[in-house]
Design goal:
two-stranded antiparallel sheet; globular; 414 residues; mainly alpha; 21 helices
Length: 414
Amino acid sequence: MDPFQLQVLLIFLVVYALIVVRRVGRVKFEVWTAMLIGAMALLGTGAITLGDAFHAINMEVILFLFGMFLLTEVMAQVGLLQYVTVRLIRLAGNPSRLLLIVILFVGIASAFFVNDAVVLFTTPIVLAACSIAKVRKTPYLLGVALSSNIGSALTPIGNPQNVLIKMESGIGFLYFFERMAIPVIFGLFSEYFVLKALYRKDLTKFAGDIQEVRSELQNRHASYAVGLIASATLLSFIFSDLLGWSISLVAGLGATVALLISPDRRDALRRVDWGSLIFFASMFIVMDSVSRSGLLESLLLPFRSTLFSAGIASLISIFSISLIISQITSNVPFVALMIPLFKGGGASQAEWLALAAGSTLAGNLTLLGAASNIIVLEAAESRGETFSFVEFARAGIPTALITSGICIGFLSLF
């Protein structure tokens, strides 16, 4: 290992350690803070130049995320997100059905809106519903996190890594949707049965009245208008390939129009998840440095012969790499690392799809596997609730392995 590789490796390990421990003494390190420290350290030590760092940041992904965060903020401002979520929760007559509704709603929503944004707004609403119903919150928090990852695998716009893969590979929206629909449906129900088995004693009956959760629209005219904009944005995503539109531009335009309707534009901009945007920009810099160092090559060596061999061997290799490395780097950085290799290896559409599915479903294996998991935890802790790394793993490991097996089996049919 040469000095450059050692330098990059040490900085990367420090970043990973900060993400794991999250606190050193009295100093708390958010995930985005840890990644920003890593990016600045690499720039400061000369491991990457300022020009290379700038070019490493995929601005299309940043614009897409910004647009979706802003659009969902305006939807929250007018009460549309809360209204839809609470209406669905009220369909529940018992804790088990509530869990299933939460899983299905978050899963479907995450397929068409960035899963990070979906969990950011549904987590506090689910917590409030659980408080009024007086049920244990852990299975529902895990349900939000796990289903956001599974559901986001349905489309190329459901999560940041899928957006990145779509932009780099040109994979079509309908192609993606057609092949992932069955695995995602089975995956969501598999998650439900795993959580029900683990928390069966906590899913017997409500101790409170779920009907007390408020769901009034703050401004009906604004809500209808924002709902129409969100629907138009969604349709534009679906037909973006046929129209030749960039999904980042669609998200930006949709958010801009919604912002004009916002009752408080400054507040909407203030509430955008800037930490996530900093995380992704910093992540691109860190992962570009890791890619340049050649460190990834040694990790991929055991899978080299089958990675682009086509057929089920290729699928198993891609999913195996995803499950392993995503726990070290998280799934978005992992995909950022793999893209140059896939482009250089001339990966087929099926192999790009396997990378998207594998990296997304791998996010459920451990707490650090996906940024959305951390967002759920952060949102819960800010309201006095939490769950441990081990609690997440108890539900996440079987869910990730089962859903990955289902996906490999189904994709191998094509």
